[in-house]
């Protein structure tokens, strides 16, 4: 058991990195920020789920998905469907032509709840759906592509196209999805008001713990033989195939895991922000999330979280003053990171901060750095 | 087709690329514990034959039987699992991983998705890694990043990765390309040692090296077999001298 524990924590260095991150988002930020700013952090950490999923998929697996918004969005929409149904009880919607259905359906002349909305009256079903539907969708996409050995830039383009198709579909099917406005005006979860201050703190903490859980899950995967195979596949796919592995199965699996993690982030987004819209599904958010991971370091699970937080704080501060310049700045940031810091913030940390004596001593433990080979296979997972 | 005692029975194997027959009605049998060398001029179809056996290229017609099991219908990983290992022409190793990890990844357990997630690094695995590392003369380099190895050592490492799987048929595409004279000798010894328990097919251009290892030599020319004899007889064969050795 202790071996598994140390694997999940990523050795001493990984454990310290995770502890520092946990301290920051669980203690320091809640104590030092007002509720509005903390809400922003909460929103950004939901994006961090996607960045973490990209570290698995892209950083370690070498599979660039430009469509992670699909899964973030699906998770978000599934959660929003449940919350919307609860907010649309017959009493609060009695002014509608058909009371008891979501308002946007009424505006679009729907007179009954569509069949696929029915099960979302149940919270257990909704949670199950969040944990399975995006992963299942990823399985279908992955199966269709990886079994045919579609990879690299083609995979990126196709995932991007699917993200676009899905966002167009959501906008087009206004009566069923709320269209371009999305699903708004979400109020309670099983009678618990998600808009008041206490709920906001609560959801922030649930989200933070789920994020840490996702990092631990990812750490386990990366530290197993599976993680080593991911790196091997990224490097020499043919060699892995001719060593007796069915490469496509491994790719499909990691794609499904990344979809699952992204979907949890999406569901937490809906809960904390109180709405979901197609602008979190399409191409732009999908690419932004790749940038978060790249800035943080695409090989580093923890770096990806910092990258997400920093880029988003930059975005918030900068776009308050110069909104139209932000996109250019973000573009240049991406180019600069790719050109000068291919391993992002985590790479800079590894290269420079560890030269500082006391940081190195803390990270390695007093002079007894044991670099056994079993230890070094977690290097990808370390911050 | 026929049931044989051969480890590998290739019969009437043909592959055509847009009408060009890279391999043309090739028939070849490999015995148990045999070390066969395939030689021939560029474009003779040597690498294509290995590609066909290991499933990288699909044949147009003909059959490939490994221990009487038809390989042409199997996918690449199934052929490997049946017991056929293949080394590529350019060293194909995982540069980002350590030598130890390169060998460990090749260990034939935990080959499924869930098997690999719950794969345990047992003492048995470690012993096997160290055993193979000693065989390929890389015991001292286990913790080294594979990218830092010399070209010759990379070739050995790839052979070692195949040995981890303990295949019954080992196919090596130019294993001594780019090696120093000393490394060539060491590789010849290595091949003579490892063919004790298995059959080996080697593609090679270096005639000195071929002489040291070959039990029998197959000469390919334009996708067809020109000669199949022990080395001294092949070297005396006039047709072979004309198309290949004469250059």
UniProtKB/TrEMBL annotation, chain A:
The chain crosses the membrane at residues 15-36, 48-74, 123-146, 153-172, 202-231, 252-271, 291-313, 325-345. It is found in: Cell membrane. InterPro entries: ABC_transp_permease (IPR001851), ABC_transptr_urea_perm_UrtC (IPR017778), LivM-like (IPR043428). Coiled coil: none annotated. It is a multi-pass membrane protein. It comes from Pseudomethylobacillus aquaticus. It comes from the Bacteria. This is Urea ABC transporter permease subunit UrtC. One of its GO terms (cellular component) is plasma membrane. Keywords: Cell membrane, Membrane, Transmembrane, Transmembrane helix. Pfam families: BPD_transp_2 (PF02653). GO terms for molecular function: branched-chain amino acid transmembrane transporter activity.
From TrEMBL, chain B:
Residues 8-247 form the ABC transporter domain. Keywords: ATP-binding, Nucleotide-binding, Transport. It comes from the Bacteria. SUPFAM superfamilies: P-loop containing nucleoside triphosphate hydrolases. The keyword NAD does not apply. GO terms for cellular component: plasma membrane. GO terms for molecular function: ATP binding; ATP hydrolysis activity. The keyword Transport applies. This is Urea ABC transporter ATP-binding protein UrtD. The gene is urtD.
């Amino acid at each position: 058991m202790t071996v598994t524990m140390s694997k999940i924590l990523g050795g001493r260095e990984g454990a310290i990195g995770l502890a520092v991150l946990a301290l920051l988002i669980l203690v320091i930020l809640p104590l030092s920020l007002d509720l509005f700013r903390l809400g922003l952090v909460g929103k950004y950490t939901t994006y961090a789920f996607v960045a973490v999923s990209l570290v698995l998929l892209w950083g370690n697996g070498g599979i660039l998905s430009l469509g992670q918004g699909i899964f973030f969005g699906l998770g978000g929409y599934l959660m929003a469907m449940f919350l919307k149904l609860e907010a649309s009880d017959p009493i609060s919607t009695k002014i509608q032509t058909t009371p008891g259905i979501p308002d946007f359906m009424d505006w679009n002349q729907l007179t009954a709840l569509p069949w696929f909305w029915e099960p979302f009256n149940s919270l257990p079903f909704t949670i199950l759906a969040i944990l399975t539907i995006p992963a299942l969708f990823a399985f279908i996409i992955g199966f269709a592509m990886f079994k045919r050995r579609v990879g690299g830039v083609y995979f990126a383009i196709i995932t991007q196209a699917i993200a676009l198709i899905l966002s167009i579909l959501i906008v087009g099917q206004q009566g069923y999805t709320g269209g371009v406005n999305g699903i708004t005006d979400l109020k309670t979860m099983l009678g618990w008001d998600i808009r008041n201050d206490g709920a906001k703190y609560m959801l922030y903490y649930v989200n933070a713990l789920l994020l840490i859980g996702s990092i631990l899950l990812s750490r386990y995967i990366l530290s197993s033989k599976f993680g080593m195979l991911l790196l091997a596949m990224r490097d020499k796919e043919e060699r892995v195939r001719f060593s007796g592995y069915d490469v496509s199965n491994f790719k499909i699996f990691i794609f499904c895991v990344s979809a699952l993690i992204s979907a949890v982030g999406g569901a937490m987004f809906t809960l904390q922000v109180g709405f979901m819209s197609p602008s979190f599904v399409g191409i732009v958010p999908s690419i932004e999330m790749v940038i978060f991971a790249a800035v943080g370091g695409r090989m580093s699970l923890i770096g990806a979280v910092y990258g997400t937080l920093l880029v988003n704080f930059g975005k918030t501060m900068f776009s308050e003053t110069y909104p139209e310049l932000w996109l250019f700045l973000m573009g240049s940031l991406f180019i600069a990171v790719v050109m000068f810091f291919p391993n992002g913030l985590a790479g800079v940390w590894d290269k420079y901060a560890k030269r500082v004596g006391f940081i190195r001593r803390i990270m390695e433990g007093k002079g007894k750095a044991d670099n056994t080979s079993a230890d070094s296979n977690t290097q990808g997972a370390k911050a | 087709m026929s049931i044989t005692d051969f480890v590998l029975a290739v019969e009437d194997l043909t592959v055509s690329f847009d009408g060009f027959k890279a391999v043309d009605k090739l028939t070849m049998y490999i015995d148990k514990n045999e070390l066969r060398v395939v030689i021939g001029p560029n474009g003779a179809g040597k690498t294509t034959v290995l590609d066909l056996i290991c499933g990288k290229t699909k044949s147009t017609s003909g059959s490939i039987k490994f221990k009487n099991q038809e390989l042409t219908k199997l996918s690449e990983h199934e052929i490997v699992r049946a017991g056929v290992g293949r080394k590529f022409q350019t060293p194909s190793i995982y540069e980002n991983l350590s030598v130890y990890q390169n060998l460990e990844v090749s260990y034939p357990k935990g080959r499924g998705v869930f098997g690999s997630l719950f794969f345990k690094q047992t003492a048995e695995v470690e012993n096997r890694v160290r055993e193979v590392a000693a065989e390929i003369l890389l015991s001292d380099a286990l913790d080294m990043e594979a990218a830092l190895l010399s070209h010759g050592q990379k070739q050995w490492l790839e052979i070692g990765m195949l040995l981890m799987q303990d295949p019954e048929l080992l196919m090596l595409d130019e294993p001594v390309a780019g090696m120093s004279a000393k490394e060539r000798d060491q590789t010849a010894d290595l091949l003579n040692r490892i063919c004790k328990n298995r059959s080996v097919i080697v593609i090679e251009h270096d005639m000195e090296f071929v002489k040291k290892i070959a039990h029998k030599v197959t000469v390919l020319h334009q996708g067809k077999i020109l000669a199949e004899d022990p080395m001294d007889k092949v070297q005396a064969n006039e047709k072979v001298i004309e198309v290949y050795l004469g250059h």
